[in-house]
Amino acid sequence: MRNIENNEWSVCILSSRESVTDLMISVKGVYQACRNKKTLIDVVINGNEMLANNLANLLSLELDSSVGNKIRIWDLNLADKAMAWNSYLYNIWPGSDLVFFLDGYVRPYPNALIQIEEGIDNKVEALGSTGVPTMGYSAKSLRENMLQNGGLHGNLFAIKGEVCTAMKEIDFHLPAGIYRNDSTIGAVIAFNLDPKKNNWNLKERIIVNKDATWSIPEQNEWSLNFFKSFIKRYVRQAQGELENKALKQHFAILKKSPKTLPRYVDELIYYWIKSDFKQSIWFFLCNPISLYAFVLMKSRMKNSKKDFNKSKRILITEGFYNGE
């Protein structure tokens, strides 16, 4: 299914906390990786108006009216990746044969996107494809696990356009505030969008391409900011463990449709606690950090829900990018 602009590819770069320099490097990397395909590149920046404006200013000298692939910069006022993904799927994506999703600090290697496309094209059952990490303290173990057991890496993956259209038709939305965005999307695809009719098949429906990868900015592992980020990520991963249990119950045990996912992540976890109270209490006793993460998440969601109904989407700039 082609859109009116006849794009072969669409690329969504999701960004929030990157520096404008790092984001610009990623944009240029994406451009290089898709320059031989007719592509619409959307940079979706959530909760950081200054970054959106700074990127627009930095790109202004390289935007043209007719040459290269088209790029658009969007400012979303709410700092929530799940809502940004939903907004892209329902309000920004115009349709294309293949849709790529990348984080704002990811710098894809020149052949990464075409390798991911080839992985999908070579497998009839495939609905999506993903690259594997090569940088970071856990990259090696994560890569080996993905190659052996399957998976979807949120830094760089692609979904067939027809699958994205089907997601919209069944009204699938990521719960606002969820940390395991990629796990949720991967689970929906692994069940072919319908757990009641289809068995779990992660390895066949999401192709893990061992050659498709990317680089990320180097970090000073002895810096205070790195330590703070590590602690924050550790707590969020503990929240992610709760989300995984709730998602497993929703899809694998209860066989519920993706359409019926709760709107907010705290509601998703509450349903798991209520339906399996003894197991949830035992889990919290054995994993106190998850209990701490749950309390933080409840407080965060309580303060955020009133803002979720005030979401705004602004197109900052658009043009044809021909940067080198």
Any key phrases for this structure?
alpha/beta; 9-stranded mixed beta sheet; two-stranded antiparallel sheet; globular; 324 residues
Provide a descriptive summary of the structure in words.
By secondary structure, the chain is an alpha/beta fold. It is 47% helix and 17% strand. The chain has twelve helices and eleven strands. The protein has helices at residues 20-33, 49-59, 81-92, 112-121, 139-149, 161-169, 181-190, 202-205, 224-253, 265-275, 277-286, 288-308; strands spanning 9-15, 39-46, 63-64, 69-76, 98-103, 107-108, 128-130, 156-160, 206-208, 214-215, 313-321. It has a nine-stranded mixed sheet, sandwiched between helices. The longest helix has 30 residues, at 224-253.
C-alpha geometry: globular
Give the termini distance in whole angstroms: 31 Å
Give the total of beta strands. 11
Major sheet strand order: 3-11-4-2-1-5-8-7-9
Quick rundown:
With 324 residues, the chain is α/β, with parallel strands linked by helices. 47% of the residues lie in helices and 17% in strands.
Topology:
Elements: E1 9-15, H1 20-33, E2 39-46, H2 49-59, E3 63-64, E4 69-76, H3 81-92, E5 98-103, E6 107-108, H4 112-121, E7 128-130, H5 139-149, E8 156-160, H6 161-169, H7 181-190, H8 202-205, E9 206-208, E10 214-215, H9 224-253, H10 265-275, H11 277-286, H12 288-308, E11 313-321
Parallel strand pairs: 1-2, 1-5, 2-4, 7-9
Antiparallel strand pairs: 3-11, 4-11, 5-8, 6-10, 7-8
